[in-house]
Description:
This protein is an alpha/beta fold. The chain contains twelve helices and eight strands. The protein has helices at 25-38, 57-71, 86-99, 116-128, 140-143, 149-155, 172-181, 195-200, 215-226, 230-244, 252-262, 279-294, and strands at residues 8-11, 43-45, 77-81, 103-106, 134-138, 161-166, 186-189, 205-208.
Amino acid sequence: MATIDWQGVMPAVTTKFTKDDKLDLKMFEVNINAQLDAGVSAIILGGTLGEASTLSQEEKKELTEFTVSVVNNRVPVILNIAEQSTKDAILAAKNAGDYGASGLMMLPPMRYNATDNETVAYFERVAKSTDLPIMIYNNPVDYKIEVTLDMFEHLLKLDNIQAVKESTRDISNITRIRNRFGNDLKVLCGVDTLALESILMGADGWVAGLVCAFPAETVAICNLAKAGRIQEAIEIYRWFLPLLELDINPQLVQNIKLAEVATQIGTEHVREPRLPLIGEERKRVLKIIEEGMATRPQLPDYKTLSI
């Protein structure tokens, strides 16, 4: 079984498109290299930010294989699974391995509001079908299914279910997980606006969104907090928060892609039915990005910290 050290900053990267709606692998490589240069711990493909629901199977294959090639074993490449049926999820897990991915991030069944028993069975059957390490994405706010601690009690009997992307919006849940499972379940914050608080309460890492545009600042906050340099982390986080709030918005993809344009590691192109922001909302988002760029902090040497 492959192994993943579930810690640090793991960007859920955007998928880059050309103006004629093809994969823009050239700009995608620019962004991936910026993430690696900043010191991220993994690359996560095919999440909401990656516009996965609009990608064809061939595009997912091309994107994954290309990322694996660019990353070249420097960090794990993790593919998200968000399927409607157990059969399709098992196939997606097999494909991920065939494409060279090192691990999986898994949502509960999509569209159908599965019971606790059905959700556990879904995760178990997919996990038993693959050797890839798995991080469960627990986001009951957006996806209406909560993976409870009792459910994790069953799931952790499987060696390759190892981590949770914690997006319940309840900071106390990190302490509950630690009290119940110790370090047997790795915890990564999945909500940008709760990331520093989560790390201070014991989260192992951060599955991040605005990292797509600001990789160095994101990793700096995580590393400083883990190294005990809390005040320095807080100061950067306070600067970052207006930008991070662009992630907790229905148009998070458009918002973050606009920010990537500002930092010159992305383009604004989205895939329909998404459209670029217009009108007053576009002005509002651009103002936040422009203010963030104008006051971008000087970062300490965060890469050499003992954490």
